[in-house]
């Protein structure tokens, strides 16, 4: 037996101190992109995400609809594996069959461009129509260019349901984007045309654009766009039926896999990683976990895991610590494993990204997790609250809530994850409700604005810089007690 000298600490026990914010440090300059898979130090990760948020491998969270919405804002979902192989593969395929829509930020036709500039662009490309939004200003914000032909196609396809009005620049008027993404997607699907929905910053479709016009947009873009032109999606796998599940998921188009277990420090995970390398080499990428100390990280990194997931017992619906006495505060787990990740990179020349999984209660905890050195986050409760999550929405005591249950709860009956393939002997998760919070697009936008704002206060414009320069301080016991009381009142899932 050994007893570690330190105390197990969680995110709520820390605050950040501001660093100098200089002229170069503005929210629009903050780059939140992150590596998703291992890569040689000094090189780029072969898979990066623009938004460092992933949705949990849970039946109440990651469905095709949520995966599409999250991919559109630059993150990635992991479709849950607590279901038959064919059903999970069908969910992955459902995400992949949709053609990717581009938010105008991605297209990057400078949303702030003046109308004079738009006018000039139009004169140089005579068939184009300018698309503007109703942002309250006399001129509207410039969203993009679309040819007259495509505008007519768009209007024809959408019929009367489209509220957006787009006019040639000569008679500029403001327009209200109206069509939902779901409508646009079904139009796309039905029309079988090679067109892409252009999505406004509010997550609603502004227009349909033909591919060749998209190329036109690209000429004015100073950023490259997603080459795949398909939404990216991940999928959870387990250590039991992987020989059947992994080939089906790969066939369905999964971009990345992740071993889904509350305890990843096991030879079974190593076996699965070895299987993937033997069958697919580096063509298939797989993350592993969860672990909470340096030994677990090194074991999985040595086994070839593409990323390592950190966290045991911190999930909002998790009772593993009560039931089994196993777990560690997420801040302590990250502190130790981040040090080991960096040591591993120095020793081997290989950077293995870390995913901090679970326990994000306030948006501020996301910034704290990044400050501790997490590369990206996995969230359950956060995404379960949105309209796009698959969980039923119900009214409870006058409040609209969404159901949210753990994968180790009786409801999930996830024998593969918690029960070693047998009947669930005891529960490790609860079944409850979370307050309904509206659309993913709106919420993620606000969350990212908060993270950017924290980072600039801390003088950082990239996550790497933030990892290196963040200064954290522990709060007093009294502050912590107060925070926990508030959390219990407002943010914890209500247990049934
Ligand atoms: P949270 O974002 O709701 O706090 O935590 C989500 C994470 O909790 C998941 O990604 C997973 O690692 C973990 N989880 C899922 N089900 C259970 C359970 O039933 C659980 N105990 O702990």
From TrEMBL:
**GO molecular function ontology, one term from the record:** IMP dehydrogenase activity
Q: What does the record give as EC number?
A: 1.1.1.205
Catalysed reactions listed for this entry: IMP + NAD(+) + H2O = XMP + NADH + H(+)
Q: Which cofactor does it need?
A: K(+)
Q: CDD domains this protein is in?
A: CBS_pair_IMPDH, IMPDH
What Gene3D superfamilies does the annotation carry? Aldolase class I
- The chain positions of domain CBS read 102-161, 166-224
Q: Which residues form the active site?
A: 318, 417
Q: Name one Pfam family in it.
A: IMPDH
**Key words of the record:** CBS domain, GMP biosynthesis, Metal-binding, NAD, Oxidoreductase, Potassium, Purine biosynthesis, Purine salvage
| Ligand binding (K(+)) | 313, 315, 318
The family annotation for this protein states: Belongs to the IMPDH/GMPR family.
Q: Do you know which NCBIfam families this protein is assigned to? A: PRK07107.1
Question: Any idea what this protein is called?
Answer: Inosine-5-monophosphate dehydrogenase
User: In which organism is this protein found?
Assistant: Actinoplanes awajinensis subsp. mycoplanecinus
